[in-house]
Input
Amino acid sequence: MESKTPLSPHIQIYRWHISSLVSICHRITGIINIIVISLICIWASLLLFGESNYENINSFLNSLIGKFIVLGIAWSFSFQILSEIRHLIMDLGYGFELKTTKITGLIVIFGSILFTIIFYLIGKNFF
Amino acid sequence: MVQISLPENSQIKKGKYFKDKTGSKNLRKVNVYRWDPSTGENPRIDTYEVDMDNCPSKVLDILNKIKNEIDPTIAYRRSCAHGVCGSCAMNMGGKNGLACTTPHAEIDGDIDIYPLPHLKVKKDLIGDLDGLYKQYQSIEPWLKSNSESSTQEIIQSKEDRAKLDGAYECIMCACCSTSCPSYWWNGDKYLGPAVLLQAYRWIVDSRDEERQARLKKVADELKLYRCHTILNCTSACPKGLNPAKAIAEIKKMLATASL
Output
């Protein structure tokens, strides 16, 4: 009988809040960033095996899909940085009131988009 | 462990549909999670059409109305109906709360009622909270004093008493713990917001002399540090308390104290 007891639904039914959304995105972007940093290291070390390897990836990143990926990475890093600052403030014991968490969460979400646009524009001027 | 999907025996099937018999024009559809332990069947969602013209304002009133007038087989816990006992904690419209203090007007569309998330279901809306109570017991929620003068009252200043505000009001309804994804995945080891709020309540009590030991006890990666400030707990608490802040305060104490 005991093994037949069902588990009540959880993530399937629970409504998302801004703070839970920011929290899960923080984890996902964290994992993405680790992978991206490793890839950048591999990309850089490819120089040792000749210029053409480096150039191949460089031209891929300048293609439409490549640009999309680069923008995604810019967003991922922006989100992680802003969310981390939010976490640091929370670790000091501030910003736990429901309204404050909502506001800081929204700042993280919209700030990361804003940062991505700024990064994009900076890149435009440089290249 | 993170397990997103429900096990085979917990998959929800479509249940019965109870059409309105009162002829009322002001109807609302109420979807209720049902599971009967006497049959071997999977849980199902029964849908009731409820006449809202003759229904008071809270979700518990809807459930009472269904039980009294439509389907007497439905099972749920309730007692005080004033947000004091914590019996009628359940998931309504995707958010945990007390059915007796949650107005149904706050829920848009059909009203979905589930038991508290990620619990073993005993019947219908009744979840098994044994694990949570065992964890509550494990933090030894009583005053510990080694003082000789055990016959005298222990004086507490107004400032020290004020530290307990926001912690002593907890009614252990389990809304917060069962809203926490960390508690869903690691409920066997992570104490969860409700129990940690109580741990905090005894750690900051100036009359308690076991502060160090209490801190040491929760200073375990899984017992305490599984809190990732998702803050579902704080937004779920029907008493307006802030378990997330209490956990952060314990973390702060552990970071600054020399144990």
